[in-house]
Design a protein that fits this description.
The complex is a heterodimer of chains A (226) and B (402). Chain A has 226 residues and is of the alpha/beta class. Chain A is built from seven helices and ten strands. Chain B is an alpha+beta fold and 402 residues long. Chain B has two domains: 198 residues, no CATH class; 164 residues, no CATH class. A six-stranded mixed beta barrel of chain B has the order 3-4-9-6-8-7. A two-stranded antiparallel sheet of chain B has the order 2-10. A two-stranded antiparallel sheet of chain B has the order 13-14. The radius of gyration of chain B is 31 Å and the shape is elongated. Classes of the chains: A alpha/beta (226), B alpha+beta (402). At the A-B interface, helix 2 and helix 3 of A face helix 1 and helix 12 of B.
Chain lengths: 226, 402
């Protein structure tokens, strides 16, 4: 199992109240899965992805990545785990605006400390997402779909153990959204890269091989699709 | 690290207007520090140059007890030079004796208190470039009853070459004497005090007016090197010797106060610049919170995020500082060649201050390094807190920030 949440609880203080985002959930993801966390807004799917992605720490419980509890690691060690083992694709693409497409992809390799053959890897990653001719463009010179492709290339280039995508198609039109999903699925099937993403879009859910349904911080369904 | 620097530079170029405005404060702070420093150094040099070239030489001797400040020139305290002193002076270097006599100058219906400088025709030119002072006419010689007037005095009295004047003075014995003279030259000695109140004539002619009995009030000496030793050698003959630095000590001390004042002003400008930089970096941190979150999510360490913002502040400070160095040094070099003419400003106050009427700035490297270092340091220091703020961002929140 690549990653696993064991009895994970996450609460946030909100004024004098405490909001329970995840209420002691248990879920695991195996290598090569193409899994979606589905649920309405406030169900806890983004919180779950943040914990698996080492972007946040649980209030209680364990977050196991490759069998190791990452919740106990310090900031720098968590950063290293993110740099080397996890790829991110964000809803708003989150490219660095002052860097070109190639430099955005290269940034992931630099931060992972993967210097060997960097240029070739960047080129290949952008070729893989169909942006061979857009390497020198900055994000503001690319369409939303193209930006998300750059983000996918950035996530893929370091060959991470898992790619976490938080509502990757939410800011795209349906045509671009489908193309992005096709691309992710293709990477998953071709390179056995594990994808874990969140959505509340039925069209996206239909493309997944496994759907974990969350509601009010609890898992209410876990189904494997053909 | 180079990649971080490249990102920092590009981030600064994202909002060039804001970067330029923020950097302008550093730029002007650095430029003012360099120009001010050059000006104060220049004033120091000009004070010395003015005194050296107009009355003091490298070493000035006055009779023991003779006042060395203010505008008093008591003839009663003047003394003759002994043969022993003359011999010592000859051994030290070129020298000339002068005698200053307080007097009243009458031209038409106007009258003005002045100081007559009796100069030794034989030796004066060895010590002072008096021909260089003449801006109109010919310096008087002992064959005629001629006088030279300081340029500011001439302007005040609207006197011209060829005008007749009457000089009224007390003799050494206290008798009042008056004689008529012709203005043969208007001179500018680059000493505001002397130009405002000075009248020059040969000692032989002054002797007729004030019956000097061979006394001198000042002896100026040119000393090629080691003036302090020369000063000791020449003391003890009824005269007190002061080196040029000692002679100008009060003015130089005043300049030290000016330098401190300049430091305070520039320090305040740069502190304001620092506040501006801190504000800019904080704004940048808030505006780019999602980028910071993304960098952290991609695995950048908090230390490197912090460094990124420090680089931005530091690079801004460096480039603004370099621009300030260019501006400040350019101004210093310009005024070093062309000078700043203070004649008109000193016309009213100059009679009481023996300072140069042309101020030339002085270029040197230390102010450049100090100003640049100060500017860059302020920029980096101002960025520390915003950088920490940026690096303490929680990535899970930041990646979704608007």
């Amino acid at each position: 199992m690549i990653c696993q949440l064991v009895g994970v609880k996450k609460t946030y203080p909100m004024g004098e109240l405490t909001v329970v985002a995840l209420n002691g959930i248990d879920v695991g993801v195996d290598e090569g899965e193409f899994t979606v966390f589905a649920g309405p807004s406030g169900s806890g799917k983004t919180t779950a992805l943040n914990l698996i992605g080492c972007l946040d720490r649980p209030t209680s419980g364990q977050v196991l990545l490759d069998g190791r509890d990452v919740a106990t690691l310090g900031d720098d060690a968590l950063g290293q785990v993110r740099a080397r083992r996890i790829g991110f694709i964000f809803q708003s693409f989150n490219l660095i605006p002052v860097l070109t497409a190639a430099e955005n992809v290269e940034l992931a390799l630099r931060l992972a400390g993967l210097d060997k053959g960097r240029k070739e890897k960047v080129e290949q990653a952008l070729v893989d997402v169909g942006l061979k001719d857009f390497m020198g463009r900055r994000p503001n010179q690319l369409s939303g779909g193209q930006q998300q492709r750059v983000a996918i290339a950035r996530a893929l280039v370091k060959k991470p153990a898992i790619i976490i995508a938080d509502e990757p198609t939410a800011n795209l039109d349906s045509q671009n959204g489908e193309a992005i999903l096709d691309l992710m699925r293709q990477m998953n099937e071709r390179d056995r890269i594990t994808f874990l993403f969140s959505t509340h879009d039925p069209m996206v859910m239909a493309r997944a091989r496994r759907v974990v349904r969350l509601k009010d911080g609890a898992i209410v369904g876990d189904e494997r699709l053909a | 690290m180079r990649f971080l620097v490249a990102i920092a530079v590009r981030n600064l170029l994202r909002n060039t207007a804001r970067t330029a405005l923020t950097g302008a404060a550093v730029l002007f702070g650095v430029a003012i520090l360099i120009l001010g420093w050059g000006l104060v150094d220049g004033i120091d040099e000009n004070v010395l140059r003015s005194a050296r070239g107009s009355y003091a030489g490298d070493l000035i001797l006055r009779p023991d007890g003779y006042p060395d400040d203010g505008m008093r020139y008591p003839l009663a305290d003047a003394k003759p030079l002994s043969d022993a002193l003359r011999a010592r002076l000859d051994a030290v270097g070129p020298w000339t004796a002068r005698t200053a006599v307080p007097a009243r100058l009458v031209i038409g219906a106007e009258a003005q208190r002045i100081t007559i400088w009796g100069v030794d025709e034989a030796t004066e030119a060895k010590v002072f470039n008096r021909q260089g002072w003449v801006i109109e006419g010919v310096f008087p010689n002992s064959e005629r009853l001629d006088v030279a007037l300081g340029s500011s005095l001439a302007r005040l009295l609207e006197a011209e070459v060829g005008d007749s004047v009457v000089l009224e003075a007390r003799t050494r014995d206290g008798a009042i004497n008056a004689l008529g003279y012709t203005v043969s030259a208007i001179v500018k000695s680059d000493n505001s005090s002397m130009d405002a109140l000075g009248v020059w004539m040969p000692l032989a002619r002054l002797d007729e007016l004030a019956v000097l009995q061979g006394v001198a009030t000042h002896v100026a000496v040119l000393v090629p090197k080691d003036t302090a030793t020369a000063a000791r050698t020449l003391s003890g003959f009824g005269f007190t010797a002061l080196t040029l630095a000692e002679e100008c000590e009060d003015l130089i001390a005043m300049n030290r106060i000016r330098r401190k004042g300049l430091g305070v002003i520039v320090g305040m400008i740069l502190l304001i610049a620092g506040a501006g930089i801190a504000n800019t970096v904080i704004m940048a941190a808030f505006e780019r919170i999602r980028e910071i979150g993304t960098l952290l999510a991609l695995g950048m360490s908090r230390r490197h995020v912090s460094l990124l913002f420090l680089f931005e502040g530091g690079i801004m400070g460096l480039f603004a500082g370099l621009a300030g160095v260019a501006l400040g040094s350019g101004a210093v070099l310009y005024f070093q060649t062309h000078g700043i003419d203070l004649s008109s400003e000193l016309e009213n106050v100059g009679a009481n201050m023996a300072v140069a009427t042309m101020i030339y700035t002085h270029f040197s490297w230390p102010p450049i390094f100090v100003a640049l270092g100060f500017g860059v340091s302020i920029a980096i220091l101002a960025s520390i807190w915003p950088a920490r703020l940026a690096s303490s961002t929680v990535p899970a929140d930041a990646v979704r920030a608007d």
